[in-house]
Amino acid sequence: xxxxxxxxxxxxxxxxxxxxxxxxxxxxxxxxxxxxxxxxxxxxxxxxxxxxxxxxxxxxxxxxxxxxxxxxxxxxxxxxxxxxxxxxxxxxxxxxxxxxxxxxxxxxxxxxxxxxxxxxxxxxxxxxxxxxxxxxxxxxxxxxxxxxxxxxxxxxxxxxxxxxxxxxxxxxxxxxxxxxxxxxxxxxxxxxxxxxxxxxxxxxxxxxxxxxxxxxxxxxxxxxxxxxxxxxxxxxxxxxxxxxxxxxxxxxxxxxxxxxxxxxxxxxxxxxxxxxxxxxxxxxxxxxxxxxxxxxxxxxxxxxxxxxxxxxxxxxxxxxxxxxxxxxxxxxxxxxxxxxxxxxxxxxxxxxxxxxxxxxxxxxxxxxxxxxxxxxxxxxxxxxxxxxxxxxxxxxxxxxxxxxxxxxxxxxxxxxxxxxxxxxxxxxxxxxxxxxxxxxxxxxxxxxxxxxxxxxxxxxxxxxxxxxxxxxxxxxxx
Length: 478
Fold this sequence. Notes:
It holds the Pfam family Trypsin. There is one protein chain. Helices cover 4% and strands 36% of the residues. It has two helices and 36 strands. It has helices at 391-396, 467-477, and strands at residues 10-16, 19-21, 32-37, 41-42, 50-51, 66-67, 70-72, 79-83, 89-90, 95-97, 101-106, 110-112, 117-121, 127-129, 135-137, 147-153, 156-158, 169-174, 178-179, 191-192, 207-208, 219-222, 225-228, 235-242, 247-258, 261-264, 278-280, 286-290, 306-315, 331-335, 363-368, 382-389, 410-413, 431-436, 439-448, 458-462. The longest helix has 11 residues, at 467-477. The model is unreliable at 217-226 (pLDDT under 50).
C-alpha cells in the first residue's frame, strides 16, 4: 500500500474506483489523489494528479504550494477601482492577485489628472501605478446675483458656474448695477481653487445701486412728452387674473425695493370682510411685470421685460379700507423668484434711517398707466412731475370731507392749478420718488384722490411713517 499523503499547503481529494478514499492513511493501489493549493497559496503545478502503483509507491512526489502574492486595494479619496475587462466596481481593501491590472477612475466631484489611471500588483505585493495622484477634489461652483465672476485655468477660460479644477483662478467684480457695500471702493480679489477642493477665500457680496435711472435710446410718448425706457426702472405693473376671460388686467403699480419685494398700496388687494392681512397666493391670481411700458401684459416691450409670480401679499395690519379712510394704505408683495437687476430693472432707494426730508414745492417723479386727459386708460406708461404738499397744508385745503382721508400717515402732491396731469385710477400703488444725493428715494405711494375735483392733487401714503413695518418684512424675506 502507498504511504499517507500529508501537506500543510495542499487540500488532497482521493478516490478508488470512483469512490471516496482517505489518503491521510495508507492507500490501496489504483487510488487516485487530486491535490490543490489551499486558499492564499499557489503553484504552477496545481491540479496534477497522483496514483498509487502496485509496488506501493506514488507515481509522483507531492508538489508544494507557495503563499500567493496579492495586493490590497488601498483607500484613496475620490478613486474607484475596476478590473481591466469589467465595469464592476471593486471595494477598497479587496485582495488582488499579482500581475493583475486594475483600472482607476474618479468619483463624481473629482477631476482626473491623467487620461488613464491603472495599477499592477507586483510580485512583492506592492502596487505599480502610473500616477501619484489621479483624482483631484474639485471646488464647488461659484454663483452670485451681484457679481460677475471670470475664471481661468492655466491661462485659459474656465466656467466657474460648474465644478472647478484645482488651481483655477476666479476674479469677481460687482455687476454694473451693483456696488460695494457701505460706500467702500471695490478691492481687487482673486480666489484660488485649492487641492483639497475648497476656495482659498470667500466671495463677497455687492449691493444693488438704487434709485438710478438709465436712459436708453428708445422712447415712449407720455402725457404729450417722451419718457425714455429706464427712466423709472423700479416701477412694476401689478396684474390680476380676470376669471371671466382668463386674461390678466392691470390693476395697480408698485416699486421694487429688493430682488423679491415690491411696495404697493393695500387698497389694490383689499376685499370687504377679509379676515387676514396676509394673503397667500398659490393660484396665479396676481402677477407683476418689470421693465414694462405697454399696458398689455402679453407685450414684451424690450430685453428687460419679465413677468413674475406672486406668492404672498402683506397688507398693513391696521388697514381697513374706505371705512378706515384708507389710513395705513401700504402693502408688501413677495415674489416667487428673485429679480435679476440690470440697467433697465433696478430698485428704488429707501430712506431706512430718516436721513432726508422733503419740503413743500419739491418736485417728485411718478409713473403709471392711469387715465389721460381724455379720460381713457393709457396704453403706455405715463410720467409726471408733482410738487410735494405736506400733511398739514394738504389737510387744510379741504373742507368737503376729503380731509378725513388725509390721515396721519399721508401727504399730498400735485397742483390745484393743473388738471389731468396728476395721478388717476390705474396709478394706485405707484411710487412718488424724490432725488436725494443723486438717487431717487421712494417717498410716497399713491393712495386716494378727491373724486369731486379735477386738479392733479392726490393723497400719498408716506413711506417713512411705515419704515419699521417695511424693515420687519425686509428682514424676514432677505
